[in-house]
Design brief:
Order of helices and strands: EEEEEHHHEEEHH
Largest sheet: 5 strands, mixed, barrel
Helix content: 25-40%
Strand content: 15-25%
Number of domains: 2
Oligomer: single chain
Distance between the termini: 40 Å
Radius of gyration: 20 Å
Structural class: alpha+beta
Number of strands: 8
Length: 238
C-alpha cells in the first residue's frame, strides 16, 4: 500500500540525477533492494547533509507512491564507517561487497540475514587490517552464495558423491570433484577446500585465513558458481 515507510537500510549505490537529486539503491531487511530518489540532496543546504552516501547504515524514512521509485523523506545515521572512508583499498572492498549484494539479491524479496551479513562485513572492513580483508571478503561472498541457495558442495564429489580424493572444483557440477570426475575442473588444494568449509561454518569475524594461492583458488571457485548458477560475473573482491 502507498504511504510512509520506515526501515533500516544500507546505501548500496548513489547516482546523480538532474540538477540536485540522487537516485539511491538501498538494501533493507524486510523489503530487499529498494530504489529511491533523494530530492535536492546535492544542494548545499540539503537537510540530509552527507548521510545518503554509499555504505552508510541508516534509519531511513521513505514515501511510497504509485511509481517504482520511493522518495526519501528523512534519514538518521546508524554507522558511517568513518575509518573505512579514509582507506582507498577498503572503499573498493566495500563497494564490491555492496555490488555483490545488489546483484545477487536484486529483488524486493526480504533476506534479513543478508542485510545483517552486509552490515557486519562493512563493520569489519572498517576495523580490519588490510592483510585480512581479502580473506574476509571471500568468506562474505561464500556466505552470500549460501544465502542464495548456490553454495558449493564441499563434503563429497559433486558429480558422483565419492568423499575421497577431492582434488578438483567444477562450477558446472556445483562443487568439489574427485579424480575420476575431474574433467573440466580446475585443481583445488586442501587449504582452499578447508578455507571454504571453515568460512561457511564460522561467523564472519572468525573467518579463517589462507595463503594467497589458496585464496586465488577460492575466488575462482566462487566466480564459477556465480557464472554457472546465477549467470553473474562480479569484479574481484578487491
Amino acid at each position: 500500500m502507498p504511504g510512509p515507510v520506515k526501515t533500516e537500510a544500507v546505501v548500496l549505490r548513489s547516482m546523480r540525477y538532474g540538477e540536485a537529486d540522487r537516485i539511491l539503491h538501498i538494501y533493507t531487511p524486510a523489503r530487499g533492494r529498494v530504489s529511491a530518489i533523494a530530492k535536492g540532496v546535492r544542494r548545499t543546504r540539503s537537510r540530509f547533509g552527507g548521510r545518503l552516501e554509499p555504505f552508510f547504515r541508516l534509519n531511513i524514512e521513505l514515501h511510497e507512491g504509485r511509481g517504482e521509485l520511493l522518495t526519501v523523506t528523512g534519514a538518521q545515521t546508524i554507522d558511517a564507517h568513518p575509518r573505512l572512508r579514509g582507506d582507498a583499498a577498503a572503499l573498493v572492498a566495500a563497494a564490491r561487497a555492496c555490488d555483490a549484494v545488489g546483484r545477487i539479491f536484486e529483488t524486493s524479496e526480504p533476506h534479513p540475514h543478508v542485510f545483517n551479513l552486509l552490515c557486519r562485513h562493512l563493520s569489519l572492513l572498517d576495523q580490519q587490517p588490510q592483510a585480512a580483508r581479502r580473506a574476509g571478503s571471500l568468506a562474505f561472498r561464500l556466505k552470500l552464495l549460501h544465502a542464495a541457495g548456490i553454495a558449493p558442495q564441499l563434503g563429497a564429489c559433486a558429480s558422483c558423491g565419492d568423499s575421497e580424493h577431492l582434488t578438483g572444483f567444477s562450477g558446472a557440477a556445483g562443487g568439489v570433484v574427485c579424480g575420476a570426475c575431474e574433467a573440466g575442473s580446475f585443481a583445488i588444494g586442501e587449504q582452499a577446500h578447508e578455507f571454504m568449509t571453515g568460512s561457511l561454518g564460522a561467523s564472519l569475524a572468525d573467518a579463517p585465513d589462507a595463503p594467497e594461492q589458496a585464496l586465488s583458488q577460492v575466488e575462482r571457485a566462487i566466480s564459477q558458481m556465480l557464472e554457472h548458477h546465477a549467470h553473474l560475473r562480479l569484479a574481484p573482491v578487491g
